[in-house]
Write a structure and sequence with these properties.
mainly alpha, 3-stranded antiparallel β-sheet, two-stranded antiparallel sheet, 10 helices, DNA-binding
DNA sequence: AAGATGACCAACCGCACACGT
DNA sequence: CACGTGTGCGGTTGGTCATCT
């Protein structure tokens, strides 16, 4: 529509905000509310565009912003939600109520992404990078799941959009209706109740095809590489304390499949990754038995995610509000 | 000591969408 | 329905500071 830039007017200031400007903006919003952002700068006596004011307010001046280092729980939440939602920073931010999308985005780009990369996990797909090699048979099997995945994704998109609209109307429900993946009352949806929890199939569909941080078998691992927090944890299902680990090796060769080993010689069960790394379309009876066990484990895993995402205990700790 | 490099993060930019007319 | 406006969002930039050489 050929819309003109909001800051095209000469004379409008750009760049870092001064304490005086902050004070003006703060004082005006406290007194009048922000109202129309475009009109605000003139009323508040600021030589800024409305957009700049809005950004300054939402990312910095808002009183309900928690600043400073992200704790481990917050990091885990970000990683989990990024695995589910991708770069939907605003959606992720709704589950970290005191953090801004910009802050989360910055933290992801400067810390978490690098950490995952160091671990050999693609920060985009949340899969081991080696999975791109030798996974052709797996990818063939994957195709049959793509429709399921896409269906779940589209459903979630639609619901996100609806809830976004809803949030704009009802701020009181802000933290309980923002993220949506599963059920919906949409006519196009197969699910009819907004109160219906997400089921395993949908979650698996979501994590399938590279969207999930974790695969079918529970083993999501996060390593805080920073020296002051040498702590390893599995994000779901199998919490472990792994002090003094300094690096992580994901074993991908057939003789050592299913383990993650540290240079300290410890090993972790990581059948989850191997499920992705190997073609598991075996007709071997033993392996089928193994698959049954994995299915059970998988179910427990998804239950853990469902517990997480359906948790409704709002607090400073970033518990995920109900999603569905 | 000084320049190079990297990390961090606030802020900007442009696009997309919702909504009112 | 078309158009204009306001706002939200995600990607990117650029300034500042710390560390390295």
């Amino acid at each position: 529509m050929g819309r003109s830039p909001c800051c095209e007017k000469v004379g409008l200031k750009k760049g870092p905000w001064t304490p005086e400007e902050d004070q003006k903006l703060l004082a005006y919003i406290e007194k009048h509310g922000h109202g129309s952002w475009r009109a605000l700068p003139i009323k508040a006596g600021l030589q800024r565009c409305g957009k700049s004011c809005r950004l300054r307010w939402t990312n910095y001046l808002r009183p309900d912003i928690k600043r400073g280092k992200f704790n481990l729980q917050e990091e885990h939440t970000i990683i989990q939600l990024h695995a589910l939602l991708g770069n939907r920073w605003s959606a992720i931010a709704t589950h970290l109520p005191k953090r801004t999308d910009n802050e989360i985005k910055n933290y992801w780009n400067t810390h978490l992404k690098k950490r995952l990369a160091k671990m050999g996990i693609d920060p985009v797909t949340h899969k081991p990078k080696s999975d791109t090699l030798g996974s052709q048979s797996k990818s063939a099997a994957s195709l049959s799941h793509m429709a399921q995945w896409e269906s779940a994704r589209l459903e979630a998109e639609a619901r996100l959009a609806r809830e976004s609209k809803f949030r704009s109307v009802s701020t009181s429900l802000h933290h309980h209706n923002s993220l949506s993946l599963g059920s919906t009352s949409s006519s196009s949806s197969s699910c009819s109740s907004s109160a219906t929890p997400l089921d395993h199939d949908v979650l698996q569909a979501w994590t399938f095809s590279g969207v999930g941080l974790i695969d079918d078998n529970h083993s999501t691992i996060c390593h805080n590489m920073e020296s002051e927090e040498v702590e390893w944890k599995c994000l779901f299902g199998k919490p472990r304390q792994m002090d003094n680990f300094t690096s992580l090796v994901i074993s991908v060769d057939s003789s050592n499949v299913g383990t993650v080993s540290s240079d300290a010689g410890d090993e972790l069960d990581i059948v989850g990754f191997t499920g992705m790394l190997l073609d598991n379309s075996s007709d071997n009876a033993e392996e089928r038995s193994s698959c049954a066990e994995e299915d059970e484990e998988s179910k427990r895993y998804w239950d853990s995610i469902l517990n997480l995402v359906n948790s409704d205990s709002p607090s400073d700790t970033p518990q995920l509000p109900p999603l569905f």
